[in-house]
Amino acid sequence: MNLSRREARALTEIERMLRRQDRAFARSMDALNAVRPVRAGHRFACRVSRREFFYLALATLTLAVIPPVLIVALSGPPCGARSAGPATPMAAAPGTPDRPQRLPGCPP
After folding, report:
1. 3-state secondary structure of 56
2. Among the ranges given (7-16, 21-30, 92-101), the one the predictor scored with the smallest mean pLDDT
3. Tens digits of per-residue pLDDT, 62-103?
4. Domain edges within the chain
5. Which residue among 57, 70, 87, 94 is the one 20 to 30 A from 39 at the CA level?
6. Residue 15 main-chain phi, psi, to 5 deg
7. Cβ-contact 101, 83 below 8 angstroms
8. For the stretch 70-92, what's the b/e string if a residue is b when 16 or more beta carbons lie within 10 angstroms of its beta carbon?
9. pTM listed for this prediction
10. What angle do CA 93, 96, 97 make, to 5 degrees?
């Protein structure tokens, strides 16, 4: 966030007054700022290690691949498909109607 010149001047003046009035506070703030210097534009940026990046990529790939695989693996054949049978038609037993098998979950 860029400040106007007037705002920057006002903040600088406030900082000078605080430093003059409370030396202990100024020293503690200087100590905090010296621990980790602020890089331009990266004040609140967090660092991500290679291990964390690897685990994040692995989790993303896992969540992207497993659901489609489960859907394909657990989905049954479409209702119009017939179960695989012998290549040559067999004669039905006497007294049995000759009709295709109904798949479970399909309308009659």
Report:
1. helix
2. 92-101
3. 999 999 998 888 886 666 655 555 555 555 566 666 666 666
4. 5-73
5. 57
6. -65, -40
7. yes
8. eeeeeeeeeeeeeeeeeeeeeee
9. 0.34
10. 130
Which H or E run includes 78? none
Distance CA 61, CA 22 (A): 54
Kindly report the length of the chain.
108
The token pair that represents 64 in the structure block: 């992207």
Which residues 6+ apart lie within 8 Å of 81 measured at CB? 103
DSSP character string of 13-24: HHHHHHHHH-HH
Note whether 103 and 81 are within 8 A (CB): yes
**Two tokens at 99?**
């009709």
- According to DSSP, residue 101 is labeled P
CA dist 75 and 70 (Å) reads: 8
DSSP-H helix ranges across 1-108: 5-21, 23-35, 50-74
